[in-house]
Structures are given as structure tokens and as C-alpha cells.
Amino acid sequence: MLLAASGAVSAIACSQKAFGAGAAEATASPAAEVQLNLFQAIALGMVQGMTEFLPISSTAHLKVVPVVLGWGDPGISFTAAIQLGSIAAVLWYFWTDLTNLAVGAIRAIKKRDYEDRDLRVVMGIGLGTLPIIFLGLIVKFVISEFYDTTLRSLMAIAIVSIVMGLLLGVAERSGNRYRCFDQLTLQDGIMVGLAQAMALIPGVSRSGSTITAGLFIGLDRATAARFSFLLGIPAITIAGLVELKDLLDSGMSGIGIVPLIGGLISTVIFSYAAIAWLIRFLQTQNTWVFVWYRLAFGIAILGAIAFGALENS
What we know:
Layout lengths: L1 H5 L1 H21 L9 H15 L5 H11 L7 H18 L1 H17 L5 H25 L2 H8 L2 H21 L11 H12 L8 H11 L4 H29 L7 H28 L3 H19 L7
């Protein structure tokens, strides 16, 4: 990944030359006018699946990768819709955990055992979801134009990627990592939920911000990742359903049903693989590889913009 990121400026320049004026035209086109075929949708599903649960920002990669390849920006609606594939994958992977949490929480409520771990985790997920829902409504109905034109610009994404990479590095270096999943508290859900709300800014990375927050509050790496995935289920599901409805209401915005299904299936497969890999990885390894990747990714985009290989769109 680091080699790929460090060579991104060269790849961007080569891609722009290869696609020529067509790429520039696609970049400048509104997201709603982008025509994705089945291959492109599957490829973007792969990008979504590989980056949704790694702390490197799926939104940033879904914005940058198709622009670099000359396909244009697929837009918020398509990217949010295929996130439903990531939800299917995380439900699939954590089905047993989710069932146990639900059963345990119901049992605790019946017994009025409000200190029960399962109930704490479920309540933490519920409370932790509220900030991103509240701010998400503001983004959608109050500052949507500013969000589309400014926050989703490539330069903004690059800067945010670098800043969040540095924060992850600080968390990795200073975090105590002494608490496991059984020691999660209601306060953990609130703190990590506030960090999750930052992911509304493209380039932040929902998993990146939540894992970073988890490390700062003393969770071990695997627990931070696991709780990040569980906490993301309501938020990503709501966002995906809302944007899928908008996509369907707009007549698919140039995206056929077959490419959309292909993108969803691809997302499910690669999301599941990414979840399984990251949890195993963080049981024995640190997060520095993602810190360096994020820094390289952001610097590569800024370099490409500075040298004219990419437009700051």
C-alpha cells in the first residue's frame, strides 16, 4: 500500500495523459451525469469494500480513484448506496456477536441489570449514533451545497487525510491500550460516537476516526476496530438507505440497476475480506502502516494538484 501511495503522483499523471481530454471532461461533469458501466461499478465496489473498514477513508478513495481513471466523480448517492454492501458484510461477519448482544441486552433489561456488559455496549452504540445522525441532517438539508463544492474537493480531502493520519499516529504512540471489549463503557460509546461524526467530512474515514478515538481512550487495537465496526452499522445503514432512495427517485442518475447490483456484490465480498483481515492484523500489529499510507495519499493528491495532473474539483 505504501508503495502504491508513494507512486500515486506518477500514476495520476500517466492516467491523465492516457485519458486526455475525456478524463478532464468527466472530471468536470456533475456527479449525476456520470455513466457507470458494470465493470466500473464492480471496481468501485472493490474500492469501497477495501477502504470502508480500513482507517484510510472510503469516501476519499471513491472520489479520487474514479477521477484519476477518467470516469468522473460517481457522486454521493451512488457511493452511499453501495455502502449498503459494506453493511451486509459487517452484519454477516458479526451476526453471532450482534445476536448475543441483543439477547443479552434484553435479558439485562428484564432483570434491571443496568451494569450488564451487553446492555452497556448496545446503549453505547445507540447513543454513539446520535451525533452523526444529527450532523448528517444538517449537512443534507442546511449546507449540502457547501459540502458538495468545498468539503468534497480533492484539496480538502488531501489535507484532511494528512491531518487524520497525524492524529492516528499520535493515538498510536500515546494510547495505553489496556482495555478489551468486555471493559467497554457507556462513556466509550459517546466518545467514539462523537469521533464518528467527524467522518461526515470527506477524507476523515469513519473507521479511522473511531479507531483513533478508541486508542486515545485506552482501548486495545482489536477492540477499537471491533467496536468501530459495530458502531458503524446504524450510521452507514441509515446513510445508505437515504441516499439509495434519492438515487431511485432521481431515475438512477445515469446508473443502471445492473451496475448498481454489481457494485453492491463487489462491495460485500471485499468488505468482508477487509473486516476479517484488519481484526487479525490489529491483534498482533500496530497502525503505523495506515498512518504512513494516509500521509502519502494526501501528499500525492496535493502534488498532483500542484503540478496540474488533477483539478481541485
